[in-house]
Amino acid sequence: MSATLAALLAAQEIVVTGQGLGATKGDAAFDVVSIDRNRIETSASGRMEDILRDAAGFQQFRRSDSRSAHPTSQGATLRGLGGNASTRALVLLDGVPMVDPFGGWIGWAALDPARIGHIRVTRGGGTGASGPGALAGTIELTSARPDQIGPVSASIAYGSRDSIDADATVGLKLAGGYAILSAGHAQGDGFIPIIEQQRGIVDRAARYRQSRASARAVMSLGETTELQANGSVLVDRRDRGLPGTGNGNLAVDSSLRLVGRGDWAWEAASWLQLREFSSGFAAANAVRTTVNRSLDQYRVPATGYGGRFEIRPPLGDQLTLRLGGDARRVTGRTQETVLATGVDRRAGGRQDVLGAFADASFEADPKLVLTASGRFDHWSIDHGYISEFSPVTGLPTANGRPFADRSGDETTARGGIAWSPLGALTVRGAAYTGWRLPTLNELYRPFRAGNDSTQANAALQPERVKGIDGGFDFHPLPGWRMGVTVFENRLEDAIANVTVAANTRQRQNLDAIRSRGIELDAEASWREWHGMISWSHTSAKVRGKGAALALDGMRPAQTPRDQGSATLEWRRAGFRAATTVRYVGKQFEDDLNRLTLDDAVTVDAVIGVPIGRGFTAELRAENLGNARIEATRSTDGLIERATPRTLWFALRYAAR
């Protein structure tokens, strides 16, 4: 082959990335935590929600993970803006929202770490170009590339309580692109949620069985255009430790994204979410010898779909401008039987959001970057209803209640500055506003947990946040970083479960939740060693009036004051060892701050030994000290726990 022909072929070579258009220089103004592939692979639990706790301040409504928690309790938030189970952070996979269309929780079991290449957590609300919903921050998951996975990787693990966890991923190079296929399965006998001192004969282990599969294709459509297609399915079955409390979730997600990397860079995406959820609810008597089933939520279908477009005009190296819009629609309903009365209840509705955004980053000089963005969103809530029927005759037992259609407009903005007076030091500050619609679940569906019931509220207003933060990032050496951030947020019209009678709460808009605090993140690498520390201290208070006046000055439910995580890892010639210590402070189960969940310290550990031909033997331990992690406490003093000590032996294979 002649040198001229070789040069021509090299010039025509097209590289596909599988990524979106990427971050801008203005992102240096915000508090960002990155979790790389190496760290993802050394998690003792192999659970995404556990890995995210490396960014202190991240929390779910409950401390349990997706093996034992009720799926509806697994919302995500940051910076102490908790208080209910809906997600107050925007969670994205390859730019596509992953929040459940009906309930606002996250199907963490579908987000298999084996297929994730990078995680980026931005603390602080307002997103501009990424869409609405980021009251507390944004969690961006990016799929792994073939060079991160290899042609074939697989693992199988056997653990405590007859648990099995298996994954397999295949990376295929195609003409002009690549494809990645992934599948996984997890099951186990589970542990008994109720603590030992309070158990009765009706208490049993909370079994789980979860299967997932995904496919991703990335291909070139020309010299500057790339197509990315994703599809995934999750079948999730869990038990809550009592007869009649099984639940199931079928989740199907698909998306298409086109990325143009020419002079006029652009990106267009569309997505579809299909959900089918079911759950049983029951309560035991005081001595836990009998169980009364209270509710059969036998069918909850929900659909979410939308699209997004962005364009970046060529304005030179100093200025990046992002212009675009997005649209989303969610529909869903619950179909359930109230067993105490024999009434069949149906409730649901529809929501639409149409938005436009502009985002600009300006490098005033090599040491100073300014950024500003704004959004305008129009929302509507319509077709809301609740109806009750006799399951025998099909006739109404009460007049159905259609709720009035509503709509409104929201204008939000975010701005920041990053100044680097020294090459290793960046001083930053940001201010932002954001908003979130109440979910269909919050608006229309009452529920019961044990002996405690919570009423829906179709009149809920959107939540709105105002916040400011500032801090610095210091990079003294390659692989060394320390970041410190102080922040203050005010979440207005915060939706909370407010006590209105004994054992009864109602979802209401509080006047506000005020949250202020400090976050510290540090990491360092030295030869074979790598260490990470993350800590957050949050002072969060409720501002209540009217029916919620009794909550004024209280800490929001399920919101710890302190959280921390520290990891030390060692790697050499295929050998690896890592240990992680986590701390979560005391928090209150309830809005009145009468029920305390104790603090907890847990230790995880991983040891991997190469045994040849691409195989590695691995020992993993979750909660090595078997600390009691209190997950719930009922008004009658009943305590549920999260994951006890769990030991694993795993065999991994990676072809390179």
Automatic annotation (TrEMBL):
Q: Where is it located? A: Cell outer membrane
Q: Which organism is it from?
A: Sphingomonas crocodyli
Name the membrane topology term.
Answer: Multi-pass membrane protein
Pfam families found in the cross-reference section: Plug, TonB_dep_Rec_b-barrel
Give the UniProt record's GO annotations in the biological process aspect: siderophore transmembrane transport
Similarity section: Belongs to the TonB-dependent receptor family.
The record's Gene Ontology cellular component field reads:
cell outer membrane
Can you name this protein?
A: TonB-dependent receptor
Question: Which N-terminal stretch is annotated as signal sequence?
Answer: none
An annotated Gene Ontology molecular function: siderophore uptake transmembrane transporter activity
Give me the ranges of the annotated region Disordered.
Answer: 62-81
Q: Tell me the ranges covered by the TonB-dependent receptor-like beta-barrel domain, including all copies.
A: 242-624
Which domain of life does this protein belong to? Bacteria
